Sequence to fold (524 residues):
Amino acid sequence: MKLEDKLFLVTFQADTESHLSVKNQELCRKCQDKPCINACPADCWEHEHEKNEVLVSFEGCLECGTCRIICPYDNINWRYPRGGFGVKYKFG
Amino acid sequence: MADDQFDVIVVGAGPSGLTVALRLAQAGLQVAVLERGAFAGSKNVMGGIFYRHPLETVLPDFWKTAPVERAIVEQRYWMLGQQGHVGAGVRSQRFGGDHPNCWSVFRARFDRWLAEQVEAAGAMLLTEATVESLLVENGRVVGVHTGLEDGDLKANVVVIAEGVNSLLLRDLGIHPELKPNQVATVVKEVISLPAEKIEDRFNVEAGQGVSIELLGTLTRGAVGIGFLYSNRDSISLGVGVLTSDLARLKLDPHDLIENLKNHPSIRPLLAGGKTEEYLAHLIPEGGYRAIPKVHGNGWVAVGDSVMLVDSVHREGSNLAVKSGILAAEAIIQAKSKNDFSEAGLASYRERLNASFVMKDLRKYKNFSHYLESHPHFFSVYPDLINDAGTAFFSVDGKSKRQMQMELFNMFKKRRGLVGLFMDALQGGMSAL
Fold:
């Protein structure tokens, strides 16, 4: 089963403003492995080659915290979404 | 203190926070629980096994009305190889009956129900309320700043029950940012299946269920575990690995669970099922050595926010509940003396130390570090044990003596006699 099909099953209340961001793109350019991209269970992070930047799609974030902790440069701003926004689990 | 709006503010409506609030409300204190989700439980994830003890000490017979799934009457451990598994298990009617040992539960349902009990006891629950920072005056936590309008709330004590991503404690300088080897990234699927199918496949009666803890090739050499729990009409399947190993081995958690679903020992149990939800969460794995300060001037911290997880016995929510009960008792004592300073709240730490929570975590203080430094438990042993088991039961004309010699040589070649001996000795020592 594809990840996108699974994420389609999850209820999200998306905010207009991201609760995730890169602090400094220069550090991402230095980062060889970019472990945030592979480790994110919801594939929120991607490497955009043209500008050589790491981009995030916060709308499908499962709010686990893996990216913040796995980042070798402590380069991810990770906040909780505003009250009521973000993932809303039915089962948990 | 007179203008404080509440005696206590609890940040987070999970097992630990809700238990603190329940116990304090029962004792007549003015309590507010702030939950960032749309309802209590909407952000909460666990495997999910929930034990009768210790919640029943503050909420007797809770399971008679709480939304529990199945009483777990059989606990299995499987070491997965590529082709199958080697397993062991314990089944007993004593795990069921009127006082089951534990149940499978869904946090989003159970916590929502528990929050209703907390409100019925007199506490106030505020949902959609994200606490953005703590209010600190003269070195003392005096309240919280929320994203709500007029969002500052004051209290004598703030209980930090944020869960594993304890940003408030980090920002207060109580612990540094978590390290990747102190947490495990877990992904889980809830897969629906008719109740009769579950009862047939797991050989259980209505209301009874089975838990299977999984080790082995499913983590592809990473330190980690998997689990399969039977719910009323669904199965919870998950896999989790140390977050540092996700980076080290370049693993994608979503691949791990997809592969697990196709494992020959797992696939038939899920056949015909439909995935209903996909979830991700971190589990604290730092153990005793990673537990930060648990109280200070005007605050106490409970549950996952201070790493109270026994990863050896895969227990967490019961430690969370116990820490909640003990924090509440310490706060009640502090209120009787009107002293909410670090010294006034110190009985929380003493109570934790005297309870099974710290005793168990202290006992296993070396174990998680031991596994991390011995990756062959996750890379070499799973296939070795499965191959040995297969060889033991295979009938192909060889004499038993020859089979035993081949087994001996298999272990000698793939792990070495010194390695085997040291694994048994050191592993045993760290688990004692």
